[in-house]
Write a structure and sequence with these properties.
173 residues, Porin, 2 domains, eight-stranded antiparallel β-barrel, 2 helices, 17% helix, Alpha-ketoglutarate decarboxylase
Length: 173
């Protein structure tokens, strides 16, 4: 067994123990689960010949009617004139609603990116990790929010999105 394999096994075991501990702790507190909502968002972006889309299932814990913290998983795909990209990763986010119809959000996302380019008959491959920090605002109607977010860490060379602006639809039940 290699050193990396042993480290990966230790990491998986540690995460499993943490998972069991948190399940036991939260299972004893039924009010915790009554404050958790499940859902996520769908994002679509268009720019010239480029299409970007993301599906992100999430869970959020509501501390009160105005503030919540959540985690999510992200899966995305981008298709341009001479390239394609797929991505996967996770995010942590916060939502603040100063009044029922307005939702302000921040989200840190870390994505594994796999890109393929076709230029002058040659193919190029690029795999890397990309961080994003989104600031967003949305109009909220009960459990649906429709809004726009902006990636303040946007890098034109590394981002899989065509623009730092991304419209979204977020749904939590």
């Amino acid at each position: 067994m290699t050193m990396n394999s042993i480290q990966n096994i230790k990491l998986v075991l540690a995460l499993f123990v943490i998972f069991l501990y948190t399940q036991n702790t939260f299972a004893q507190n039924p009010t915790f689960w009554s404050n958790v909502r499940y859902g996520g968002n769908i994002g679509i972006g268009f720019s010239g010949d480029t299409f970007s889309g993301v599906i992100a299932p999430s869970a959020i814990y509501d501390f009160n009617n105005q503030f919540g913290l959540g985690v999510g998983f992200n899966f995305g795909y981008t298709d341009g004139l001479n390239f394609t990209a797929s991505n996967y990763g996770g995010s942590v986010f916060s939502i603040y609603s100063p009044f029922n119809e307005l939702e302000l959000s921040t989200e840190f996302e870390l994505m594994g990116v796999s890109r393929r380019f076709d230029e002058l008959g040659s193919q190029f491959k690029d795999d890397y990790w990309y961080p994003a920090l989104y600031l967003g605002a949305a109009y909220r109607m009960r459990f649906i929010s429709i809004g726009l977010r902006y990636d303040v860490l946007y890098d034109d060379d590394k981002s899989i999105y065509a623009s730092p602006f991304a419209p979204f639809v977020r749904i939590f039940f």
